[in-house]
């Protein structure tokens, strides 16, 4: 999807007011349709009813119903209550309810909320109508205009101002879209008293030519420090090369600046994959976990939400890769960091982040991460008493309350896990039937047993020190 933003300049103030009225009626129509969809009304019944109520043609009404249905489905997918959706923005609405906000600040917030609530208009593209029937781009001698259907075969024109001189390419692209007769959707929005149009066209991607047949490039995006780690494998999952890309520009700056550099980083990653002829494997991040209280306040939810901010970067990598005909594989990111730092960081003398990228790459090839024999021997030698001693050590040495609480929780879970194994004849790496534990718990216990004692205050990014302990099996030395 390609989206172009442009400001609309109207020939007269009266024309602008007519379009604002159209946007108000369309927004009301969309909210009304949302309420009726909650009550179980079908599209055809709504379409006939809404045309008369809001004085809109059938296409505008159909698009309003589509937007309402999309909002409803999105609310359900996120696990929210569809009946509590607030058009205009829930956060803004809650701020308006606060009594300490008044005067100019209150008026400013109210205007912003009303613009979001009432200042909308959407029109889908139609291939049979050579682009878009209700909101059509027209190229004239004196510029590029948007022709808006305001009812009863009456049209108003607004000049499309696609940006400054450095953004001339936007205007040229809009002209090409208008002349090619390809379908495009137009969304009109009111912001700070000005009316903006967003033109969207769906671009067909070329056939996938670069697949995982010759290997993959695994990508690990890290929140702290801001960087992208990548690892290249062959088709069998063997490590070939790796690298790290700092993302210092994303640590601060405006929204537009961050957006620009996300595209730059995405281009660099895709170029690496293109040069090496490898598919790309990325994490499939999800934000559905809301935490125990349902308000995204838990530690796990905060981590997921922070990673969610990087979905924009991963999405750009995915988009650019598709444009280049490169296969993109999404995998479950669970335990990739733990497995990477314990298994591959000491084995290849690489950082935790690159090791995680390597695990992601192997997962994209369908490879399972089995625990080496030395690691199993270490776990078999580990006792509950040793973990109890570690627990007391953490209580005495770790001053940071948050880290202390986190370590104690992990140690208690490891103790419970080992206790569940005492009744089993031997410890094997497989899901434990009849319990809430899985194969991943072996890795978690191993992390507690070796990482916490070595670095209780802060997890290091270099785990080469574990080479003798885990790879060569030299444990037991104080």
Features:
478 residues, alpha+beta, Nucleotidyltransferase, domain 5, 3 domains, 7-stranded antiparallel sheet, 5-stranded mixed sheet, 16 helices, 48% helix, 17% strand
Question: What would a concise description of this structure say?
Answer:
By secondary structure, this protein is of the alpha+beta class.
**How do the SSEs run, as a string of H and E?**
EHHHHHEEEEHEEEEEHEHHEHHHHHHH
Any idea what the radius of gyration is? 28 Å
Domains, number: 3
Q: How is the largest sheet built, in terms of strand order?
A: 2-6-7-1-5-4-3
Helical proportion? 40-55%
Strand content: 15-25%
Overall description:
With 478 residues, this protein is α+β, with helices and mostly antiparallel strands. It has three domains: 200 residues, no CATH class; 153 residues, Nucleotidyltransferase, domain 5 (2-Layer Sandwich); 99 residues, no CATH class. The protein contains 16 helices and twelve strands. It has a seven-stranded antiparallel beta sheet. A five-stranded mixed beta sheet has the order 10-9-8-11-12. Strand 6 and strand 7 form a beta hairpin. Helix 4 runs antiparallel to helix 5. The chain is elongated and about 85 Å long.
């Amino acid at each position: 999807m390609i989206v172009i933003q442009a400001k609309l300049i109207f020939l007269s103030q009266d024309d602008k007011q007519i379009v604002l009225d159209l946007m108000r009626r369309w927004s009301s129509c969309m909210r009304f349709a949302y309420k009726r969809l909650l009550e179980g009304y079908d599209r055809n019944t709504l379409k006939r009813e809404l045309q008369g109520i809001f004085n809109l043609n059938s296409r505008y009404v159909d698009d309003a119903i589509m937007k309402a249905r999309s909002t409803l489905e999105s609310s359900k997918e996120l696990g929210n209550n569809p009946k509590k959706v607030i058009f205009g923005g829930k956060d803004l609405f809650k701020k308006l309810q606060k009594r300490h906000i008044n005067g100019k600040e209150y008026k400013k917030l109210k205007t912003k909320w009303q613009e979001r609530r009432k200042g909308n208009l959407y029109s889908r593209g139609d291939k049979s109508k050579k682009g878009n029937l209700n909101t059509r781009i027209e190229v004239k001698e004196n510029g590029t205009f948007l022709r808006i259907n305001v009812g009863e075969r009456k049209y108003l024109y607004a000049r499309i101002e696609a940006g400054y001189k450095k953004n001339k390419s936007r205007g040229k692209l809009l002209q090409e879209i208008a002349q090619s007769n390809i379908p495009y959707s137009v969304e009109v929005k009111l912001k700070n008293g000005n009316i903006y149009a967003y033109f969207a066209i769906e671009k067909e991607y070329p056939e996938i030519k670069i697949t995982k047949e010759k290997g993959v490039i695994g990508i690990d995006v890290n929140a702290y420090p801001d960087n992208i780690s990548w690892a290249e494998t062959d088709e069998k999952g063997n490590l070939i090369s790796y690298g790290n890309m700092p993302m210092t520009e994303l640590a601060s700056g405006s929204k537009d600046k961050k957006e620009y550099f996300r595209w730059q980083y995405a281009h660099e990653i895709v170029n690496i994959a293109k040069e090496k002829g490898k598919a790309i494997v990325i994490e499939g991040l999800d934000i559905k976990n809301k935490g125990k209280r349902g308000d995204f306040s838990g530690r796990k939810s905060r981590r997921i939400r922070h990673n969610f901010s990087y979905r924009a970067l991963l999405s750009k990598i995915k988009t650019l890769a598709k444009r280049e005909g490169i296969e993109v594989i999404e995998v479950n990111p669970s335990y990739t960091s733990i497995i990477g730092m314990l298994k591959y960081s000491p084995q290849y003398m690489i950082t935790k982040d690159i090791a995680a990228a390597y695990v992601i790459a192997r997962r994209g090839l369908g490879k399972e991460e089995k625990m080496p024999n030395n690691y199993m021997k270490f776990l078999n030698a580990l006792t509950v008493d040793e973990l109890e001693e570690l627990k007391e050590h953490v209580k005495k040495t770790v001053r940071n309350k948050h880290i202390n609480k986190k370590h104690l929780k992990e140690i208690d879970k490891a103790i419970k896990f080992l206790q569940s194994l005492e009744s089993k004849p031997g410890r094997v790496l497989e899901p434990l039937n009849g319990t809430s534990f899985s194969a991943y718990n072996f890795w978690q216990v191993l992390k507690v047993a070796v990482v916490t004692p070595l670095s209780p205050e802060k997890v290091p990014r270099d785990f080469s020190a574990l080479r003798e302990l885990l790879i060569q099996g030299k444990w037991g030395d104080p």
